[in-house]
Amino acid sequence: MTQFSRRGFLAASAATAASLIVPARARADSGAMALSATTRVIEVNGRAATVLGLANAQGGFGLTLEPGQRFRTDLTNSLDFETIVHWHGQIPPNAQDGVPNTNPTLKPGETRAYDFAPRPGTFWMHSHIPEQEIGLLAAPLIVRSKEDAATDRQEVVMFLHDFAFRSPQEVLAEVSGSTAMDHSTMDHSAPPRGGMEDMPGMGGMGQMPGMMGMMGGSMAMDLNDFDFDAYLANDRTLDDPDVIAVERGGRVRLRVINGASMTAFWIDLGTVAGRLVAVDGEPVVPLVGMRFSAAPAQRLDIEIDLPADGIALPVLALREGARERTGIILAPKGAEVPKLASLSEVDHPPVSGDMTQELALRAVSPLAERPVQNGQMVMLSGSMQPYLWTINGRVWENRIPVAAKSGERVELMFHNMSMMAHPMHLHGHVFQVVEVNGTRFSGAMRDTVHVPAMGSVTVAFDAGEAAPWMLHCHQMGHLATGMMTELAVSA
Asked: How far apart are CA 202 and CA 386, in angstroms?
């Protein structure tokens, strides 16, 4: 990331704030919310850095919609390069989904209108170009329900990200060995080419490099492709955390969004037990606990009854398999705010492979029971050496889309043949988790599921609008090097 002096940091922040006023006023008469893809300056560990962001009309980041409000938004690209923004977890018409296989990217200075009925819950929005998501072009998208408006509780958003002072291009080059594709040039009209078996040196085993890694003698899971310089909660580290004023003994609905590009976290409430009441925007039967897992792109809604003694409550995000941590602090008036180190004393356990939480979740409104009309296995493969990740043995350019017909009940078994877990995200649909590692159950409704290394997860859904919908791993290194295909829904 570009670095500035503190004087430069303050000047740039003022200039950015001033620049946001003009487009907001210019669009005031349209009745649409203004949103701008832009740059901003944040301070990380005492250093200033220019990052990307999505600014609303007030100069803040992200959008909050009230009950019944339509998603009527004018998105302006204020950057000097092309971009495209996806409304993660929402189900707009395919033409508004914000992905470069079906939607043209926005040119610098271009404004595009979006208008659809949103789903209530905790969502987020981000660029669908990996380098830009790594560069923090992402923000919360909160759609409040009638219940939210009627319930006496405070709502708090905790937006997580991983951060590097190096440019996103350098990050991807380091993790991938410069094999990442250019997503800004994706052409949906181009026919897929041959599969991995056609690539030199791959032969018939090209679809299972993860299995080849196992046969090489290593059985340990791979974690954390990249060591970022910092891990952020609401753009801040624990050296200078976001301290949020709360009511002594009050109730909080904590909306956790894992917007990290490559990092899974444990959400740790310390000695206070919370109730997990929704995942990926979908209500679940409350699950009580002090620690919950969140893979990249997943969201957690946690209800917390704050201590009556008025002590500040840190909510920490613990990086899996490492000591780094970040977080926010919920502090009643007059409470002493603790000083917390950015490193724990010991490594945190892996999130990847721990399916205890997933197996315990139950949807409040599960799918209606009906026969499965289309069942398919989706093979996930890849390895760290070479750094190459595939779906059904193919990278994006060589994809064979997963076929479905609109209206039919579909089950996809994600069979992971690699030594890394993969947060798999399906656009345009909400699915139910119905099987994990051979155990059948009626689980949570989701849009992103974490598939364990050398394991399997089966999801069920009813195929929606006839269109090509993205299906991909939400770990940006994996997506950028090929772990992406389409769910091709036909009429």
From this structure: 11
Q: pLDDT tens across 435-481, in order? A: 999 999 999 999 999 999 999 999 999 999 999 999 999 999 999 99
Contact 216, 148 (CB under 8 A): no
Q: Are 390 and 483 in contact (CB under 8 A)?
A: yes
Residues 6+ apart with CB under 8 A from 382: 209, 210, 388, 389, 390, 418, 420, 478, 481, 483
Q: What is the pTM of this model?
A: 0.87
Q: Say yes or no: do domains 153-175+224-351 and 362-490 share a fold.
A: yes
Indicate the residue type of 289: G
Helices then strands, each counted (H, E), the chain: 7, 32
Q: Hey, what are 139's tokens?
A: 């923000």
Give CA–CA dist 134/94, Å, rounded. Answer: 24
- Tell me the average pLDDT of the chain: 87
In 299-373, where do the E strands start and end? 299-305, 313-319, 325-332
Res. 192: pLDDT tops 70: no
Residues contacting 375, CB < 8 A, separation 6+? 410, 411, 412, 413
Residue of 345, 241, 228 whose CA lies nearest to 296: 228
Q: 2-146 domain in CATH 1.10.579.10?
A: no
CATH numeric code, 362-490:
2.60.40.420
Domain boundaries along the sequence of the chain: 2-146, 153-175+224-351, 362-490
CA-CA distance, 113 to 15, in Å (whole number)?
26
Domain 153-175+224-351 grouped into CATH 2.60.40.10: no
Return phi, psi of residue 98, to 5°: 75, 50
Which helix (H) or strand (E) segment is 476 a member of?
helix 476-480
Q: What is the mean pLDDT of residues 416-439?
A: 97
Euclidean distance between CA atoms 125 and 118, whole angstroms? 13
Q: CA–CA distance from 67 to each of 70, 146, 308 (Å)?
A: 9, 6, 31
